[in-house]
């Protein structure tokens, strides 16, 4: 009887020891995961909002250019119809055309600058929140998979893209 | 039979493991709803409101800049104005009437590791400094809104408190009008940061946290 109890006790101790060993191993081995960068970027709420904002600005600039194009068309038709060329109409056409070219170039530059500015702001927050996710969930490494070969293989179970998207969106909304 | 010391050892081990988990759960519950209906003295009330664990103060760090918002219940404003160990009930009611048209927040922008004046952080020129002073003093008001439920409310009351070289931060006292949903919705302060290039910053005060705010003890 006593012998059996001793064996039982030793088994329980061994189980507890094994448990402790597994926990220690689990905690000491680096926790890793990877995210699909494009999916992460596209799933980020801030990116969606800034994209909308950018398109609004871009569209309103395009409308200005469209109305200038229309004015140019009307003037060119007027010039074509006139039998005797009116120098004032030609002058007006030339100055409108110059204005159109100048504005078009300016808008293109401004659109590029705005797009770069928004991209930078989005990436700054995306990187910060991904870091916060790693720290909050005890990750040692989070790899980015953008399909260029920097991450050649990983098991699907290591794909944490959806978890990270949920986390960064909550962070962006300021609820976490 | 098993030796009783062996049994005690095993039971203690298992109990300790379970108790740890339970304690964590208890802590979470206390932060959310542990103070409903409680009456607090002014000093305790102020401490409670300013404690980020109670959810009326939210912080967000983006790289080198920290953005922080403090929701200010009317009782809190009265306590901060009076700075006395006790507050009279009549005074509180009078102040309530004065304040009740709006809802109030403090927004603080600070350098995470830096020192010196916030306005001078990563300056390119003297002109940029003047532009920042002007922007923070006046124009930034247009870049702040409060999303209260489904309503987006512009900032109506705006005051910039400069800390100069005393602290690497700047505080903005903000006031927004009240809408119908004010009492039953979460409130998100939305700021578009033009100075430090961080973009849209959102900080949300959860409606449950507002509901769970204790009451101020008056005399």
Task: Describe the protein's architecture and organization.
The complex is a heterodimer of chains A (176) and B (219). Chain A has 176 residues and is mostly helical. Chain A has two domains: 1-30; 31-173, Skp domain (Protein Binding, DinI Protein, Chain A), CATH 3.30.910. Chain A is built from five helices and two strands; from the N terminus they run αβαααβα. In chain A, strands 1-2 form a two-stranded parallel ribbon. In chain A, α2 (37-43) runs parallel beside α5. The radius of gyration of chain A is 32 Å and the shape is rod-shaped. The model of chain A has no long low-confidence stretch (mean pLDDT 92). Chain B is of the alpha+beta class and 219 residues long. In chain B, a hairpin with a 2-residue loop joins β5 and β6 (151-162). In chain B, the strands form two sheets. Chain B has an eight-stranded antiparallel β-sheet. Chain B has a two-stranded parallel sheet with strand order 1-10. Chain B is globular. Chain B has one domain. Chains A and B meet through α1, α3, α4 and α5 of A and α1, β2 and β9 of B.
**Low-confidence blocks of residues of chain B:** 17-34
CATH topology of the largest domain in chain A: Protein Binding, DinI Protein, Chain A
Question: What spatial order of strands do you see in the largest sheet of chain B?
Answer: 2-3-4-7-6-5-8-9
Strand content of chain B: 25-35%
Question: What is the subunit arrangement here?
Answer: heterodimer
- Label the overall shape of chain B: globular
Question: For this structure, what is the CATH homologous superfamily of the largest domain in chain A?
Answer: Skp domain
Task: Supply the number of helical segments of chain A.
Answer: 5
Given this structure, which CATH class of the largest domain in chain A is correct?
Answer: Alpha Beta
Low-confidence region ranges of chain A: none
Number of strand segments of chain A: 2
What helical percentage do the residues of chain B reach? 25-40%
Total number of distinct structural domains of chain B = 1
What is the H/E order of chain A? HEHHHEH
Structural class of chain A: mainly alpha
Biggest beta sheet attributes of chain A: 2 strands, parallel
